[in-house]
C-alpha cells in the first residue's frame, strides 16, 4: 500500500479566487427567473425570510443573522421590477449597497408589532386582497419569523400565504457560471488542504488537533470559513460521519475521515477524505476501493436528463456488489450551493432531473463490517456532455500515513 505525501498526491495549481459579490445583472436574472416560476405556480408574490434566500435574491450578507431577535423580510412581486426589502432599520445601510432600491423599515425590535403591519401592507399592495403569496413552507425550507406573526400577517394583509417551494427550488437548482466559479474555487482550496493532512499530522495528535490544523490551513489558502468540519477516527473504520472531532488520540490502525463544508463568498464545498494510520487491513483497503468505484459510477451516471434516482442506482449497484451491509445516511449525495446541503437527494424516489448547471455531491457510503463505515465524496457540476469534477479526485487506494 503506497504512502501519501506531497510528491505522490500532487494537486493542480489553485485558481485565483473569484471577485467577491455579483454584478447587478446576476440578480436581475435571478429575479426574472423567480417571476417566471411564480407565473407557473400562479403566485402574485414570493416572501422569503431566511439568510440564504435573502442573500440569493438581494446580495445582502451580514453576520447579524446570528441574532434571532429581529425578523427580516424580502418580497418579490410577480410583476415588479425588483425585490422589496421589509427590514429592521439597523439593516438599511447594508441593504442600500445591494441592487435593491425599495427598502422599507421599522424600528425593530418592537415586540408588539415587529414588522407585521409593514409587511402586511406591502403584501396587500403587491398581491391584492385575496392574492396568493408563496413562502418557505416546504421540505428543506423554513420560515424565520414567529408563527404567531405569520398568522397575523395572513389576517391583516388579506392575502393567501401558500407554499412557494417550487419557486425557490426552481431558481436555485441551476447555478450560474459565477456561482460555479465560487464552488470550484473553494473545492480547490479544500482539496489542497486535504493533500497537506499527512504533513500536518504529528504523533500524539487527537481528532481535534488534526481538524483544527486543517481548518487553519483552508483559511490560510483563501477560504472564508469552515463551519462544517467533522473528524472521526476509529480502529479499522469509523461508526458515523456526523460527530466529532473529539479529544481521542489517533492511534495505529485507525482510519480517519475528515468531511468539510468550507465556504468562499457564501458558497460551500462538501466532500471528505480518508486516511489509514499504519498499514490498513485488506478489508479496509478494499472498502475504500469499493466506495471509490461507486463514486466513479455515480459521476458517469450524472448526465443531463438523468434523474438523481438513476445516479443513486448506479452507485448502489457497485456498493451492493462490493458487500455493503447497509448505509444509515439514507442517501448517496445531494445538491450543493449557498447551503451545505440542498435539494435534490440522490436516493430512491427522487426523480429530480439533472440540468446543465446542477451542482451535486456524489457520496457513496457503506457499512463494510458491523459498526464500521467507509464513505467517499466528490463534488461535480452537470455540463452538456456530462459531469465536470470540481474537487481534486482522491486516489483509489486508501492513503496511508506511515506509523513507523
What is the compact description of this entry?
This protein has helices at residues 24-40, 51-58, 92-96, 116-127, 147-157, 165-173, 177-200, 207-220, 282-301, 308-321, and strands at 45-48, 73-77, 84-88, 102-106, 132-135, 160-163, 225-235, 254-264, 267-268, 271-277, 334-335, 342-345, 359-362, 365-369, 372-375, 378-383, 386-389, 400-401.
CATH-assigned fold name of the largest domain: Creatine Amidinohydrolase
Q: What form results from the Cα inertia axes?
A: elongated
From the structure provided, what is the oligomeric state, counting identical versus distinct chains? single chain
Instruction: Return Rg in Å.
Output: 23 Å
What's the main sheet like?
Answer: 6 strands, mixed
- Total beta strands: 18
Strands in their spatial order, largest beta sheet:
4-3-2-1-5-6
Number of domains: 2
Helix count equals 10
- Corresponding CATH superfamily of the largest domain: Creatinase/methionine aminopeptidase superfamily
Going by CATH, the architecture of the largest domain would be Alpha-Beta Complex
Order of helices and strands: HEHEEHEHEHEHHHEEEEHHEEEEEEEE
Output the structural class.
alpha+beta
